[in-house]
């Protein structure tokens, strides 16, 4: 019932074209017969002319009956083929719509997985940078900023995505979005500030350690 290569559509189109041409051709023999009956030779008063005209009239009457029957059959066949063609188009369209729906569901699932794991992978890569993992004075610092950011950033991303999805839905309930953003601000502002302060603290300690290392090298060179 499905037309993957459009072969059935071509066959239906060819059949409809053939029936249309036949419907035009069946008028030609009748028109030629009427011209022959109305010819000049049969209008003259010659022997057997009246009988010939009567024979032509009988033949034309029979041909008209046959033409009407043939036209009725052609019309019926054309309607059947058009019905099959429309059913084929509808079935093909339904199948394409089903495939599009399946594809949209796959894209939706991929988007959900991407949204879930992108913040986590980004933070893992960010905190794996060398200048953020060096110990200060040979002491392992407590990863407070790491824990805060690992909780705050995914929650902020999920809340933002949920808010956008809520805003873009069909009924456009935009009155809920300001409340959602206010809740996101209250819940994520403090962890983000803690994350930023932790980054500044680590950077300051790293700069101080670099300066101490440079001063020690200079003093050793002067003593030599």
Provide a descriptive summary of the structure in words.
By secondary structure, this protein is mostly helical. It has a domain of 97 residues. The chain has 7 helices and no strands. Helix 1 packs antiparallel against helix 4 and helix 2 runs antiparallel to helix 4. It is rod-shaped and about 140 Å long. The chain starts with 6 loop residues before the first helix and ends with a helix.
What is the molecular shape?
A: rod-shaped
Number of helices: 7
- Could you give the distance between the termini? 94 Å
**Helical content band:** over 70%
Mean residue pLDDT: 74
Which stretches are poorly predicted, pLDDT < 50 over at least 5 residues? none
Count of strand segments: 0
Q: Label the structural class.
A: mainly alpha
SSE string, helices as H and strands as E: HHHHHHH
Indicate the radius of gyration in whole angstroms.
44 Å
Beta-strand residue fraction: under 5%
Largest beta sheet, briefly? Answer: none
* Oligomeric state of the chains present here: single chain
Give a quick summary of the entry.
The chain has 224 residues and is mainly α. The protein has a domain at 1-97.
Helices and strands, with pairings:
Blueprint: H1 7-25, H2 27-37, H3 40-43, H4 49-127, H5 130-133, H6 144-167, H7 177-223
Keywords:
single chain, 224 residues, mainly alpha, 0% strand, rod-shaped
């Amino acid at each position: 019932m499905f037309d993957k290569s459009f072969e059935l559509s071509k066959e239906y189109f060819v059949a409809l074209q053939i029936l249309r041409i036949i419907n035009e051709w069946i008028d030609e023999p009748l028109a030629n017969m009427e011209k022959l009956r109305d010819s000049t030779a049969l209008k003259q008063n010659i022997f057997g002319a009246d009988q010939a005209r009567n024979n032509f009239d009988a033949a034309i009457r029979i041909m008209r009956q046959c033409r009407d029957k043939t036209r009725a059959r052609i019309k019926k066949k054309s309607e059947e083929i058009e019905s099959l063609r429309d059913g084929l188009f509808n079935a093909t369209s339904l199948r394409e719509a089903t495939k599009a729906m399946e594809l949209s569901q796959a894209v939706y699932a991929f988007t959900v997985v991407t949204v879930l794991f992108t913040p986590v992978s980004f933070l893992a890569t960010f905190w794996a940078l060398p200048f953020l993992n060096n110990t200060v004075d040979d002491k392992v610092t407590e990863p407070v900023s790491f824990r805060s950011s690992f909780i705050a950033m995914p929650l902020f991303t999920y809340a933002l995505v949920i808010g956008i999805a809520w805003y873009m839905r069909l009924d456009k309930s935009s009155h809920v979005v300001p409340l959602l953003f206010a809740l996101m601000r209250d819940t994520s502002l403090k962890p983000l500030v803690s994350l930023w302060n932790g980054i500044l603290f680590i950077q300051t300690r790293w700069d101080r350690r670099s300066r101490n290392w440079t001063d020690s090298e200079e003093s050793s060179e002067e003593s030599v």
